[in-house]
């Protein structure tokens, strides 16, 4: 239900109790945190895809009712709209493995010098290395 069925997939979810419960269930296998609007914009520009496996372009943005990636990123950041409810866009992002590799072991929690679990604002640094 989180739409992260493969390694190096990313999705945007809000902080509803339903999602938080799902994250607590998979906390040993995924990493998460609060992403910034700039990172959302970068994700949409470089790794966002339409339903037909093509990059998001100005035509598809205008079909959704947005002029720029900044407008769409601000709406997603403020939770005024949700990626899964937008027709024509995939609700997940396929990312590369991080440049220069993971900093710690992927099976340990972030607090124990690993990579899994909650990492707060530092998720932006990891996401920028994976985009």
CATH topology: 3-methyladenine DNA Glycosylase II, Chain A, domain 3
Binned, the helix content reads 25-40%
- CATH class label: Mainly Alpha
Mean residue pLDDT: 88
The shape, in one word, is: globular
Structural class: alpha/beta
CATH architectural type = Orthogonal Bundle
Oligomer: single chain
How would you describe the overall organization of this protein?
The structure is a single chain. With 131 residues, the chain is of the alpha/beta class. It has one domain (9-130): 3-methyladenine DNA Glycosylase II, Chain A, domain 3 (Orthogonal Bundle). It is 34% helix and 12% strand. It has helices at 17-25, 37-47, 58-64, 69-77, 123-130; strands at 9-10, 31-32, 93-94, 105-109, 114-118. The strands form two sheets. A three-stranded parallel β-sheet has the order 2-5-4, with no helix packed on it. Strands 1-3 form a two-stranded antiparallel sheet. Helix 2 packs across helix 4. The two termini are 23 Å apart. The mean pLDDT is 88.
Q: How is the topology of this model organized?
A:
Blueprint lengths: L8 E2 L6 H9 L5 E2 L4 H11 L10 H7 L4 H9 L15 E2 L10 E5 L4 E5 L4 H8 L1
Parallel strand pairs: 2-5, 4-5
Antiparallel strand pairs: 1-3
Helix pairs in contact: 2-4
In short:
By secondary structure, the protein is an alpha/beta fold. The chain contains five helices and five strands. Helices cover 34% and strands 12% of the residues.
